[in-house]
Amino acid sequence: MTSKAPALAGQWNLSEWVVNRTNGRRCEANGVLSLKQAGSEVVGRADAEDPCSNREDDAAIAQGRMDGRNVAFTSGDCDYRGTVVGEPAVQMQGNVRCRVKTRSGEQVLSGSWRASRN
Question: Where are the beta strands (DSSP E) in 1-118?
Answer without folding.
Answer: 10-20, 26-38, 41-49, 58-67, 70-75, 78-85, 91-102, 105-117
